[in-house]
Amino acid sequence: MSIRFVTKNLHALIDYPVAFSLIATPFLLGLGQSNAPALWLSVATGVAALLLTVLTDHQTGLIRVLPYWLHLAVDRAVGVVFVAAPLVLGFQGLDAIYYWANGLTVLLVTFVLNAPEGQRRGLVAA
Known about the structure:
Radius of gyration: 15 Å
Strand content: under 5%
Number of domains: 1
Shape: globular
Mean pLDDT: 91
Helix content: 55-70%
Structural class: mainly alpha
Number of strands: 0
Number of helices: 4
Largest sheet: none
């Protein structure tokens, strides 16, 4: 069985919960106590992710004007930004861990676990 199981449809289903999590979790964790951008970077990214999902041409997109490949490219860019943010913006402690964990997760999902379009879950290309 292939490890590349995150299909376009599965990705579409997790986009909304991820966007709302990026908006709410920083408040729940109390991020940004010593560095305000640690709070607001995630919130702004969550709002942008929500808009991106609404506009993406996949099963949960509402307007469907952006191609899925562009959505993936934006997700990957966010992953890179989240991994770099603690170093560039000086996040420490929980703030840094939050961004590193989210950034690495996004990169793992979009580069390693992402199934090429047209591949069905559970099938391995021969």
